[in-house]
Amino acid sequence: MTVFTPEKTGLDLEAVNQQLENASATEVVEWAVTTFGDGLVMSSSFGIQAAVMLHLVTRVKPDIPVIWIDTGYLPPETYRFAAQLSERLNLNLKVYQSPLSPARMEALYGKLWEKHDVESLNRYDSIRKVEPMQRALRELGATAWLAGLRADQTQHRQNLNRVGLQGDRYKVYPILQWNAKDVYQYLTKYDLPYHPYFDLGYTSVGDWHSSRPLTADDEHERDTRFRGLKQECGLHLPQTDGEAESLDSSSL
C-alpha cells in the first residue's frame, strides 16, 4: 500500500471510509500505520480514558510519537497519571508547551479562563493548546494524526468520519463508533487504569480551572468543561479562517 507524504495526499476519503466502515479499532490503526508510515503520530491529553487509545495504538506501533500538549495548568494527578502510563506502555512521548509561560500570559491578558466570554476562552486555547499542537505536527513531520474522539461526545464529533482531513493532514479516529460501555470493557480486559479524577465524579478532565465533576443538573458530560460555554478546545477543529466561529459553537 502507498505511504503518503505531505506532497502526496491523494486519498479517496469516500472509498477509504467505505472500506473501513465495519473495521475494528485495531484494524483502523493497522491501516493507518501501513498507509502513513513514519508520518503517523497520535495525541493524548492523558484524560479520563486515555489509556484506551495509548494501549490500542502502541500494541500496533510501539514507537509512535505521542504528542502531549502540557498547558501548564493541568492537575497534579494528570501529571502523575501521564508518568504512570508512559512508564507502563514505554511511550515515545513528545511534550509540547506554549512559548508563553503561564505567568507571562496572565500578566499580558489576565486569567482568561475567569472571563465570561467565549472570545477569552478561545484566546486561552489558541495560546496554550492550538499553537503548540500545530508546532508539534510540523516539527514531527506528521502527515496523519490518530485521535481518540468518539461520536457520542459532542455535536461536532457526530459529523466525523473515521478518516478525514484537518487542514493538510489526515485525521484518523479508530474508536469513533465506541460508546462508554466499549471503553469500560477495553479497560477491564487489559487491566488499564482510569484517570484518578474518575473516582471523584469527573467524566472529562482538562485544566484544573476549566473542569468539574458531573452533576445531576448537567444535560451532557461536556457541560463540565469551560463552564458549559463551549465544548471543543480547538485541537480537533479545522485550522481555517472560520475556526473562531467553530470554536464558539463547537465543543475537547
Give structural notes.
By secondary structure, the protein is of the alpha/beta class. The chain has one domain: HUPs (Rossmann fold), CATH 3.40.50. It contains nine helices and six strands, in the order ααβαβαβααβαββαα. The protein has helices at 13-19, 25-36, 50-60, 76-89, 102-109, 118-139, 155-158, 180-189, 243-249; strands spanning 40-43, 65-69, 92-96, 144-146, 163-166, 169-172. A six-stranded mixed β-sheet has the order 3-2-1-4-6-5. β2 (65-69), α4 and β3 form a beta-alpha-beta unit. The radius of gyration is 18 Å and the shape is globular. The two termini are 33 Å apart. The model is unreliable at 1-8, 229-236 and 239-252 (pLDDT under 50).
- CATH class group: Alpha Beta
The CATH topology corresponds to Rossmann fold
Helix content: 25-40%
Strand order of the largest sheet: 3-2-1-4-6-5
Number of helices: 9
C-alpha geometry: globular
Q: Which secondary-structure class do the elements indicate?
A: alpha/beta
- Low-pLDDT ranges: 1-8, 229-236, 239-252
At the fourth level of CATH, the homologous superfamily is HUPs
Beta fraction: 5-15%
The largest pleated sheet is described as:
6 strands, mixed
Taking the alpha carbons of the first and last residues, their distance comes to: 33 Å
The count of strands amounts to: 6
**SSE series:** HHEHEHEHHEHEEHH
CATH architecture term: 3-Layer(aba) Sandwich
